[in-house]
Amino acid sequence: QGAGEAGDEPLLIVQRCGVPLMIDPDRSRAVQALLAAEPLDLILSDDGLQHYRLARDLELVLIDAARGLGNRRCLPAGPLREPVERLSSVDALLYNGATADRDDGYAFRLKPSALINLRSGERQPVDYFPAGQTLHAVAGIGNPQRFFNTLEGLHWRPVPHAFADHAVYSAEALTFTPALPLVMTEKDAVKCRAFAADDWWYLAVDAVPSDAFVGWFDQQLLRLSP
Q: Counting Cβ atoms within 10 Å, is residue 202 exposed (0-12), middle (13-18) or buried (19+)?
């Protein structure tokens, strides 16, 4: 299935990790279907905090370290799906982009690992483009500026093109002037391979949680093991 049927994030997860994945607005039904189809020891539910019919052993909340909780109000007045007080009952907070663990949570960052060509699959190191390279940067994610900042951190000069989260792309929408190499997020790339040009790349990133979180999470898995 393509991103149009499965969604960009589910498709990315399956392509990157090769794990069994089930899409269902009824999370409990999705888990039952997974367990019936695969011998699984661990199930992760993305954006599953509010699905209270779904039993869970651990609750993890990922927070953008730069934007925090916004105005701390719930939808539609703010970005939150539940009151701030809900965080006091979860098992751990992870702050994406934090440089060090905090009193109330763990640090977490995304580390660029490679440039991958959309058409050929060619894989190049992140220093493939020289410092000062000007390029078109495409991001249709929740916080596009984070991606543009990452490219600047690699000493490139991105021309930013921010799109809505889960945007639908076309070759026409991604044809920019002047002609330059184009770099996008891996989540965007799963929707663009069919019409990609030769000089379109995506930046692969790896999740790097803090050592303290890795140790804590290992302890939780051991505790939960039968």
A: buried
Q: Residue 194: which region, alpha, beta or left (left: phi > 0; alpha: psi -120 to 50)?
A: alpha
Note whether 120 and 164 are within 8 A (CB). Answer: no
- For the residues 186-192, what does the mean pLDDT come to? 93
Residue 207's φ and ψ, nearest 5 degrees, are -75, 130
Sequence-separated (6 or more) residues with CB below 8 Å from residue 215: none
Q: What is the pLDDT of residue 3?
A: 54
Q: Give the tokens for residue 203.
A: 């930046």
The strand pair at 200-209 and 106-117 is best described as: antiparallel
The CA-atom distances, in angstroms, between 214 and each of 16, 183, 209, 219 are 21, 31, 7, 9
pTM: 0.84
Q: Which amino acid is at 224?
A: L
Residue-wise over 3-14: b if at least 16 C-beta within 10 A, else e? beebbbbbbbbe
Tell whether the model's pLDDT for residue 5 goes beyond 70: no
Q: Please report which confidence band the pLDDT of residue 15 belongs to, taking 50, 70 and 90 as the band edges.
A: confident
Average pLDDT over every residue of 193-219: 96
Cβ atoms within 10 Å of 165's Cβ, excluding its own = 13
